Amino acid sequence: MQLATRAVVTAALAAVVAVAGYLGGLAVTVVAVLLALALAVGWPSLTGLPFKPGSSAVIGLGGVGAVLAVHTVADQPYLRDLPVVFATAILLAFVNELLRRDGRVRMVESVAGTVTGTLLAVAVAGWVAIGRTPGGEPLVVAGALALAIGSAVVALPLHGWLGSIATTLSAGAAGALVGAVLRDVDTTAGLLLGVAVGVLVSSLHVLFDRLPALERPVPAVAAVVLPVTVTGILVYVVGRVLVG
C-alpha cells in the first residue's frame, strides 16, 4: 500500500472518530473496539512475529478489554482498571508461547512484540476515557480532526523536516480551529493539542514509512490504524492537562 493511500485511510479513520466524538456515548466505544481489532489483525504481520494467530488473539483481547473496562467503569478515574487489563494481557502473551507447537523459535521477540502490540491497542481506550470526561467530547473532535488533517498532509510530496513541520503546523491549526468553533475547548488548548498530535503523526511516519512489510495489505492495516489508536491516550493526557 502506497504512502498516499495509507495517509488518506488514516485521515478517514480519524474523521470517523471525530464524528463518533460529536455523537458521543456508545459511538466512540464501538469505533474504539473496531480500531483495536484492526490493529490486532495487522500488527503481528507488520512486526514479523512468529506465531501470528496467537499474538493477534492476545492483542485483540487486550485492546477490546481495555475499551470495555473504560466504558463500563462507573466514575472517574476512568482508566483505573487499565493496569489490570494490561497485566492480564501480559500473562496471556506467555500463555500464547506455551501453546506454540513450532519449536518456540524467537520466543523473546514474540513476547516483546505481542506485549508492545497490546500496549498500542490498549491506548485506544483513551478516546473512550476523554469522551466520558465532563467537557471531553469536544476534545475528541479536536484531537481526531487534528489527526485527520495531519495525516492528510503526510500524503503530500514533502520530505524531511519540511514535511514534519508542515504536518505539525497543519494539525495545530486544525486543533485551534476546532477550539475556536466548539465550546469547552479554547483556541490555545486546541492549538497545543493539535501540535502534540502533529508531532506524533510525524514521528510515526518516520518510524514506519520505510518498512518493506507495508507493501502487503495486512501489515498496512496496522500502519494506518496505529496513529489513531495511539492518539487516543495522547488526547486523554493532553486534554486532562489543558482542560482538566
TrEMBL record:
Annotated keywords: Membrane, Transmembrane, Transmembrane helix
Signal peptide: none
Transmembrane segments: 12-43, 55-74, 81-99, 111-130, 139-158, 164-182, 189-208, 220-243
Keyword flag Transmembrane helix: yes
Domain of life: Bacteria
Transmembrane is among the record's keywords: yes
Protein name as catalogued: Uncharacterized protein
The organism of origin for this protein: Cellulomonas gilvus (strain ATCC 13127 / NRRL B-14078)
